Structures are given as structure tokens and as C-alpha cells.
Amino acid sequence: MRASNHLIGLLNFTTFLLSVPILGGGIWLSSRANNTDCLKFLQWPLIVIGVSIMVVSLAGFAGACYRNTFLMYLYLWTMFLIIATLIGFIIFAYAVTDKGSGRAVLNRVYPDYYLEDYDGWLKERVASESYWGKISSCIRDSKVCGKMGRYVGGVPESSDMFALRKLSPIQSGCCKPPTECGYVYNNETVWTAGGGLVGNSLDCLKWINDQSQLCYSCDSCKAGVLASVKKSWRKVSVINIVVLIILVIAYVVACAAFRNNKRMDNDEPYGETRMEKAQPSRIHF
Q: Which residue ranges in the chain fall short of pLDDT 70?
């Protein structure tokens, strides 16, 4: 009995520790939501799941220490729901970020991003006018484009050096015009039409050298946000999958230990079923 209780307590302590990377992933997404991805609703499911695992693990730990059957039942049922929710969140995260990626550009290290390459619920939410106004304002306030400037020997980098840079999806989609438009590079966020526009994309007409506008209204900017969110979610999902596997193993072992405790409470030898009390006969001899 004591060994089983110690095992359950150890497993609860393990699940408590596992809540830390999940909660950390939610906080990391929250920090990116404020200054990078600018989507401020994706982190909350992870934060709620992480806090729930932490609280339920403490309840299970207390139940194991004080042999409180109610707390153990509460721990097992709630942890089952949390695991199911985490599985659903992982599937959802991969489903909404399944499609879309940058397109390679000739003589450029950075890719260009196109909104038509993306599909599904997340695209519709990001591309909606009401929500995009908040996202574009967040990108503008983060000054991500203003931080692109580089100087070599006291002068701005050349167009050839810029072409070799690894830009983030938001920098590529929001801070410069699409490459197909044929704009001429002056610096990272100033481009001129030169000999005239050659692309057919509507984004070619939306580009403005005004540093408060740039390509924030372009579809390429929306695609860049989607690509950035996909990258962030995939990183967090890898951690969640590892944590989920360990959680499931810990849950199965905790169930077995709890059943063993109940068997000992009923004075049942290990490996045998408890004999039910026979109903007394109404006929007496």
C-alpha cells in the first residue's frame, strides 16, 4: 500500500513538472502574440491546459499522501479529460496550419508569401477585415520593419546583400513589396517603381513607401503572418506531443496503482478477484 501511494505521488509530481513546458509554450506564444505573430487568442488554450494539469497534479498528490479516494477519483477523471483536450488541441493545431509555405524566389534567399497558398479557418480569421486591422496595427507598433536596417561601413547594405538575407515571414510579406512587382531596391523599406511595374498582383499597387503603411494592407503580409503562426505552432506542438506521450504513460501507471490500492483496501490478494458475498438462502434446514 505504501509503495503504491509513493508511486502515485511520484507520478503526480512528474505530471506537475510536465505542466511547466506546456505552460511555458503558452507564455512563449503569448510573448510572440504581443510583438511578432500578433495573434492574441492562440496561446490561451495551452495556458489553460498547463494550469489545469498543474492544479490537478497537486490534487492527485494530496490524494495519494492522505489516501483520499475522492481526490484520486477527481485526479483520474480530470486528467483523462485534460489528455483528451490536449490531443484535440494538437490535432487542431496541425489541421489549421497544414497548408501553405513560402515560394522560392530566383536569386533570393528569402521566399515570398502568397495568401492563396493558405486555406481553412485560420486564413479566414486572419484575412477578415475586422481582425486584420488589429493585426496590422500590432505589426506596425512592433516596429519589426524598422528593425530591418543594416549598415556596412556606415552605409546601408546593397541590394545584393539584401537578397542574401534570411527574412522572417512577416518581414518578407509586410516590409517589402512582392518580388514579382519589379520594384527597385533603395533600402530595406524603400523601393521605387523604376522602369514600371511588371507583376499582376494587386499587392503591387498596395505598396507605399510611407513607413507607417508599407505593405501592411497587402495579402502577402497576411500570408506572412500565417506562415509565422504556422512556424510557432509547429514548434510548440512538438513539445506538446512529447509531453502527451509521457502523460499517457503516467496516467496508465497511476490507474494501475490506484486499482492496486483499492484491491488492498478490500483485502484481495494480488492477481485474484474479490469474492462476492453470496445472498443468504431463504430455506433453512
A: 1-6, 32-37, 39-42, 64, 67, 195-197, 261-285
Instruction: Say how many Å lie between the first and final Cα of the chain, rounded.
Output: 43
pTM of the model: 0.78
* Cross-strand pairs, 151: 156
Which segments of 107-153 are extended strands (E)? 151-152
DSSP-assigned beta bridge partners for residue 152: 155
Cα gap 199→212, rounded to integer Å: 24
Judging by beta carbons within 10 Å of its beta carbon (0-12, 13-18, 19+), is residue 18 exposed, middle or buried? buried
**Contact at 8 Å (CB) between 173 and 223?**
yes
The Cα 179–Cα 185 span in angstroms is 10
Question: What CA–CA distances, in Å, run from 79 to 11, 44, 85, 121?
Answer: 12, 19, 10, 29
